[in-house]
């Protein structure tokens, strides 16, 4: 395996790092407070739960105590969980209850990736694009990188077995096609690392490597176990981005999670397809706010609440400017009208056919889960006597997927940074 497994020791042994850490801490705490005061208080209607003298999330002292208590419960759990997840073949995946939901999420990733590659190419049509796939898992996005004709890919993940599968898939991709036009155009490197604790830039074979794009799909929230972990993950995502480069990803929407929790009777909410269990109904520390997420047997390990406005503040420290952060619903509305994207929706089987063909069982058996599709179907039938087939997701699956947001940050160019500096001084 073409990969280094160097653990990152001694980060705090360097006195310059202590100063840097102190600076970062002060900055992030300030940013966190700002995010809390200005945004979260409104969005989450955070209460001070019985202690009016404290900020909504408690003091920073309390936050760090929380982080210490929770310190590192998840890293080994997460790696173990993902390593143990069996890679099932296409046939098994087709039978899965969340077949359409998974494909829908995959479509969102495809569009987000295609969109950002397009932005990069518009700026520099001849650029040989270099991409960092952070928390790449088993390589679910390899085909997207191939299709996007990138030149170089770096993959990293904490789960060794997953990373091995990713590398195997990459090699298969190269061998699969005899058509020279379909050959894999990019070379790839693989690094096993706990990206919330190790610094990737110290591992690269090419120490001067820079990326046009970092993609971190369905993973960044794991690092919100503690402030230090979130900072390291963010550093890994942004440190080697070129000016004008992008950091994209998908994460659960912290505000939506808390909204649903508040609307539920206990600390649990969900349906037949997904469930979320919080440990408290009214305490949401900025870091280390653990909840358990279960998606029809796909993910079942501790996750951590990510307040997007806080990530946005933290990202500014890396000269990263938010381009967009959209719910999957908004993103779908915005992109599904484009004929190419709509064709991709159907090629990727991202929506379930309604009404189903005879002999096909719908994904959801919950009463009323297709009433929206039925209403639409009836309306169309009144207008035309053609044979009508719709694409949809059951309400329960929609509820699960609408928990997520898709985001893109862009690294400022030195000119933009200089302008920002002058306008604030
Ligand atoms: C839901 S999977 C997503 C995989 C892939 N990005 C995709 O979209 O198919 C989450 C991945 O994050 C990885 N992960 C979680 N915490 C990590 C950490 N601290 N360092 C590196 N990888 C991590 C897991 O091992 C897993 O492969």
TrEMBL record:
InterPro entries xref list: mRNA_G-N7_MeTrfase_dom (IPR004971), mRNA_G-N7_MeTrfase_euk (IPR016899), RG7MT1 (IPR039753), SAM-dependent_MTases_sf (IPR029063)
Localization per record: Nucleus
Signal sequence, start to end: none
Keyword Transferase: yes
One annotated Gene Ontology cellular component of this protein: nucleus
Catalytic class of the enzyme: transferase
Name of the featured protein: mRNA cap guanine-N(7) methyltransferase
Native organism: Acanthaster planci
């Amino acid at each position: 395996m073409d990969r280094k497994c160097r653990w990152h020791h001694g980060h705090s042994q360097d006195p310059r790092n202590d100063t840097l850490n102190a600076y970062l801490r002060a900055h992030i705490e300030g940013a966190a407070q700002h995010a809390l005061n200005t945004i979260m208080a409104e969005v989450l209607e955070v209460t001070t739960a019985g202690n009016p003298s404290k900020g909504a999330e408690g003091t920073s002292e309390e936050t760090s105590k929380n982080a210490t208590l929770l310190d590192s419960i998840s890293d080994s759990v997460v790696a173990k969980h993902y390593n143990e997840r069996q890679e099932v073949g296409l046939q098994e995946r087709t039978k899965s209850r969340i077949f359409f939901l998974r494909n829908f999420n995959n479509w969102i990733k495809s569009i987000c990736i295609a969109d950002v590659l397009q932005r990069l190419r518009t700026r520099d049509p001849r650029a040989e694009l270099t991409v960092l796939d952070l928390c790449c898992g088993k390589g679910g996005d390899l085909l997207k990188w191939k299709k996007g004709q990138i030149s170089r890919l770096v993959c990293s993940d904490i789960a060794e077995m997953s990373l091995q599968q990713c590398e195997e898939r990459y090699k298969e991709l190269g061998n699969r096609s005899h058509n020279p036009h379909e050959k894999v155009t990019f070379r790839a490197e693989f690094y096993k690392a706990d990206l919330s604790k190790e610094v990737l830039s110290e591992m690269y074979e090419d120490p001067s490597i820079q990326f046009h794009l970092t993609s971190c799909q369905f993973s960044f929230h794991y690092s919100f176990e503690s402030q230090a972990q979130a900072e390291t993950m963010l550093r890994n995502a942004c440190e080697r981005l070129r000016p004008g480069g992008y950091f994209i990803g998908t994460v659960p929407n912290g505000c939506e999670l808390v909204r649903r929790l508040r609307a539920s009777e206990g600390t649990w909410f969900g349906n037949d397809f997904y469930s979320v269990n919080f440990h408290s109904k009214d305490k949401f520390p900025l870091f280390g706010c653990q909840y358990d997420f279960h998606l029809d047997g796909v993910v079942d390990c501790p996750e951590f609440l990510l307040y997007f406005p806080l990530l946005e503040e933290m990202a500014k420290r890396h000269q990263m400017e938010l381009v967009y952060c959209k719910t999957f619903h908004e993103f779908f509305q915005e992109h599904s009208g484009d004929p190419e994207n709509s064709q991709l929706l159907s090629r990727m089987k991202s929506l379930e056919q309604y009404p189903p063909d005879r002999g096909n069982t719908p994904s959801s058996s919950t009463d009323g889960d297709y009433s929206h599709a039925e209403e639409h179907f009836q309306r169309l039938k009144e207008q035309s006597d053609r044979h009508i087939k719709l694409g949809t997701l059951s309400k329960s699956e929609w509820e699960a997927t609408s928990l997520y947001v898709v985001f893109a940050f862009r690294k400022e160019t030195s000119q933009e940074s200089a302008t920002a500096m002058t306008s604030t001084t």
